[in-house]
Structures are given as C-alpha cells and as structure tokens.
Predict the structure.
Amino acid sequence: WQAIPEAEYRRYLPKDDRWKQRYQEPTPPDTANLPPLPEGWVWVTLPQLGELSRGKSKYRPRNAPFLYGGPYPFIQTGDIRQAEGFITHYTQTYSEAGLAQSRLWPAGTLCITIAANIADTAVLGFEACFPDSVVGFIPEFGVEVLFVDYYFRTIKSRIERLAPATAQKNINLEMLQKLPIPLPPPAEQRRIVAEVERRLSVAREAEKAVEANLKRIARLRQAILKRAFEGKLVPQDPNDEPAEALLGRIRAQEDALGGLPLFQQGHGA
C-alpha cells in the first residue's frame, strides 16, 4: 500500500481561505477514563488527524436513473463490507449529474460505514463517490491510514454496541468525531502496520490450510461411508449369517405376531 502522493493530495485542498471562517478546532478526547498509553503515544480524535466528513448524495430519489451510468465510480456500504480492507473494483458509477450532487474522494480515503452494516472499513484504491451512509477519512501526512483502519477493526463490536437499538442500526458523524484513538509516533505506526499485515498474512495462509484439510476430511468421510455400504470396509467372513437369512427370520417373527411389523408391536407394548 502506498500513501497518497503530495501532488495528488493537494488537488483536494481548498482553493482559497473561505474555509477558515467555518473552521472549528478539533476537540481532543476526554482522557479521564482512558487507560495509560506507552511513552510517545497520545490519545486523539479523527478530526485531529485529518478530514472526517460524510459522503454526499443530495438528490432525491436516490435511484433516479439520470444520476448513474457515467465515468465516476460510486461505492456503497455493501462494497465496503465485501472489500476485505481495500476497495479495488466497483459495480456502479455516477454520471456528471450524479457527481454534481455528490463528491469525488481521493484514492487512499478510509471509508467507514455508519448505516446498515456499522463500522465496516476499507481503503479506496481509486477516486470514487459514496453516499451519506458512508463517512470518509483523509489522513494528514504522517498518519498511516492503515493504522486507523486496523484500529477500527479492533473496536468494531464496541461501536456496534453504541448504536441505538432500532430496526436498522446506525451511528452518526458526531460519534465518530468523539471517538478516542491511541496514536503512536509515525515510525511506530508504520512498524505496527507492517507487523499486523505480516501476521494477518500468516493467519490467511493458516485459514486456507484449514479449509483445504476440512475439504479433504469431508471427502475421506464420504469415501469411508461409500466403502462401508459396498461391503469393502471390513473383510468378508464366510461364516457370517447371510443378510437374506436375517431377513427371513424377521419375516417369521412378524408372522408369529399376526403380521404386525416388529417395531410397531414393540412401540405398543
């Protein structure tokens, strides 16, 4: 994974100073009840580390045909859930009209779902738009986006518990803005990301090996059963009573009971 080049990053910076009139200094987290951190680490919030904003999809109805079918990739919550960390393909696009009521986010943006499937995350591998059910985070230089991504994966279940208990759970931007994040120095962020990726790679290989072994076990189980019912599992003994003789004895016993099957007679007893 490569960070956003500075020239590319500057394409998304404000063109003038009017944004400063609306700017509010990010609020640091309340650390009163937070655990101590290693030396050199600090508790921060996402707005302190970069831009955190909701996606845009202003037009209603959202499924208006003229919004779609153009050159601009359009990512939704399901794409993020299925991405396994990186969004590398898309199935829907916006037209020029779709882009006009949305926003194009740069490659390297961390996408965070806040509706339906909550707190799923993935990093954009290309420029794309997404709706307001997704929050985008563009890190400042010195902040590893994958470090933030892995932290979200760590606390996903905790975020889900914070969501109101409604038919369709969702969280809001304010909740993410206040979320405390433990931040190490840049060099340590990079080392942590590299080690996490190394260990996850080992875990993926182990999963593949387990899956392959389970398939082999299933095939072996079926082969054992097949051989058992073909009479090939155990050696044949010529002294064994033939199955036909056993069947004859069962019929004789049923005749003696007045023609009732043995299991019915036993059940009624």
Remarks:
- The chain has ten helices and nine strands.
- The chain has two domains: 40-183, 185-233.
- The longest strand covers residues 68-74.
- Residues 186-228 form the longest helix (43 residues).
